[in-house]
Amino acid sequence: MNELLAKGMIRESLSPYPILGLLVPKKDESIRMCVDKMAINKITIKYMYPIPKLEDILGELHEVTIFL
Questions:
Q1: What does the alpha-carbon distance between residue 44 and residue 67 come to, in Å, rounded to a whole number?
Q2: Which of 10, 13, 24, 48 has the fewest CB atoms within 10 Å around its CB?
Q3: Which residues contact residue 63 at a Cβ distance below 8 angstroms, ignoring those fewer than 6 apart?
């Protein structure tokens, strides 16, 4: 890790909630990025109500003839 820091390929995070990211080799020799967002998920405010589906919103507009 110190070698990557010295080369400038990575840098130390200044964020109060850093996200850990790892590059993991796959079986087919490509690389997958794995991200740990647990710190962000802990501080995120959850929605009190679910986000409505677009079909439901458009269904309410089927009788409307005037749009402002």
A1: 35
A2: 48
A3: none
Question: Which pLDDT band holds residue 28 (cuts at 50, 70, 90)?
Answer: very high
Find, among 21, 16, 62, 59, the residue nearest to 40 by Cα.
Answer: 16
Q: Are 5 and 17 in contact (CB under 8 A)?
A: no
Half-sphere exposure of 67 (CA within 13 A, CB side): 3
Amino acid at residue number 57: I
Integer Cα distance of 38 and 41 in angstroms = 5
pLDDT: which is higher, 19 or 26: 26
**Per-residue pLDDT reduced to its tens digit, 44-58:** 877 777 788 888 888
Confidence of residue 67 (pLDDT cuts 50, 70, 90): low
Residues 6+ apart with CB under 8 A from 57: none
